[in-house]
Amino acid sequence: MTTNGWLQIALFSIAILLVAKPLGLYLVRVYDGRTRWLAPVERVIYRMCGIDPAEDQHWTRYATAMLLFSVATMLLTYVVLRLQHALPLNPQALPAVPDRQAFETAASFTTNTNWQSYGGETTMSYFSQMTQLAFHNFVSAAVGIALAVALVRGIARRGHQSAAGCIGNFWADLVRGTLYVLLPLSVLIALVMVQQGVIQNFAPYLEVSTLEGGTQTIAMGPVASQEAIKQLGTNGGGFFNANAAHPFENPTPWSNFWSMVAIFAIPSALVYMLGHMVGNRRHGWSVWAAMFVMFMAGVAIAYRAEARGNPIHAARGVDVATTATNPGGNMEGKEVRFGIANSALYAVITTSASCGAVNAMHDSFTPLGGMVPMINMQLGEVIFGGVGAGLYGMLIFVVLTVFIAGLMVGRTPEYLG
């Protein structure tokens, strides 16, 4: 472990702390309908889709709307992937995605799981990447945030007979989250990514000659636009097979830093939003602090294990000490441009937040370093967690804790008074 590594971890932690309150307040205004700088666009969407944003839906109608929307968009993606060969923006003439793979990809991206059984550059056309996979990166994240907001509304409204069982309007929440939160932030992050060297084009793949006299195919594509929402929506589905370890997706330490900030920005803000909406900001910060303590414990363990390296290698004479000319530790499966600190930090962030993005191969971590991502996943990825999913996952733990503690002390379990 090095001072430089800890400073980078501290810089990330400060950034996430600083973004929590302002973005959290902005989320409150968005979902209360008080942010209207895109009101003309919002009204057009409501009119075209027949949405009444003032309608307050019962939780059963809210849940039904969410399920119907998810099923419809999943089937649309399945059809597009099966017809990929006949659709535009396919300069490599990639064939249709096989039926089972198209189905599992559609299901995975619809649920914000983004599990990939394919290499993006060899399977998906630009059209499929942009109109389906990136589309789900937006709407699956918007659905997750909407459900978290709906749950918090339900907690905040408990006891109000006029709103019994009503938790807002799913369609309005979906539109507002996409229009006011995900789209503008994605544009900003995409511009930062392009400035750092992430590619964004519709060019055919390049055939180049190698120094050895062979040929190599270099994939192109609209990467920066998808990279932004991939991280911001805690999706993780990579444009390329190597994901964020690929230099066209994540070329520099700064692109790596902003990728990590994007993963945690909205989940961190949602925790502050919880405290604000239920009228108890101290509770919101308490939940935030609990998440942060667990997150830092994971980072410390993973970083120490990876920086220490494999003791078996050291016993056999391999130099695992960190010096000015040797990174030391366990560099297997890691990119030199990121190093051990940023690889360990990224691994803990992405598995805390249910994001599938990786900048190092987790199966190359040491046993102890690799244990941390496994524990994060087994906890349900609730340490800040995926957009929306982390908050309502953590609230389940909170409510269970309140219930069990109430039984232990002989009092009626009660959450937030």
Describe this protein's structure:
The protein has 14 helices and two strands. With 417 residues, it is mainly α. Strands 1-2 form a two-stranded antiparallel ribbon. A hairpin with a 5-residue loop joins β1 (206-209) and β2 (215-218). α1 packs parallel to α12, α3 (59-82) runs antiparallel to α4 (99-110) and α3 (59-82) packs antiparallel against α6 (126-156). It is globular, with a radius of gyration of 23 Å. The relative contact order is 0.12.
**Through-space gap between termini:** 45 Å
Secondary-structure-based class equals mainly alpha
Task: Please state how the strands of the largest beta sheet are arranged side by side.
Answer: 1-2
- The geometry reads as globular
| Total number of beta strands | 2
* Count of runs of 4 or more consecutive helical residues: 14
Topology pattern, helix = H, strand = E: HHHHHHHEEHHHHHHH
| Helical proportion, percent range | 55-70%
Rg over alpha carbons: 23 Å
Overall pLDDT, averaged? 92
For the sheet with most strands, the description reads: 2 strands, antiparallel
Contiguous runs where pLDDT drops below 50 for at least 5 residues? none
Strand proportion, as a percent range, falls in under 5%
